[in-house]
Amino acid sequence: MAIEVAESDGFLEFVVRDDGSGFDEQLLNDAGGAAVHVTGEGTGLGLRLARRIAEMHENAGQRGQIRLGNECGAVFRLLLPR
Question: What is the DSSP letter of 35?
C-alpha cells in the first residue's frame, strides 16, 4: 500500500494505492455512487461517505470529489479544492 499527497490543478490530491485485485468494473462505472456492494462483505458505505465529505468541500466554485481507478491494484483519490 502507498499513500501520496500532491497538488494538482487547484486541488490537494490524496491518493491511496494497493496491489490487490482492484475495484470491480461495476463500481468504477458507477458515477452516481449507487452501487450497493463493493465486495462480498462490504456495503459501499465508506465510499458513499467519502464522496459526500468530498462534495462538502467547496472553494472558488470548485467542489471536492473522489475518483476510483485500477492501476496494478485499486487506486482511491480524494481531491479537495485549494
Answer: -
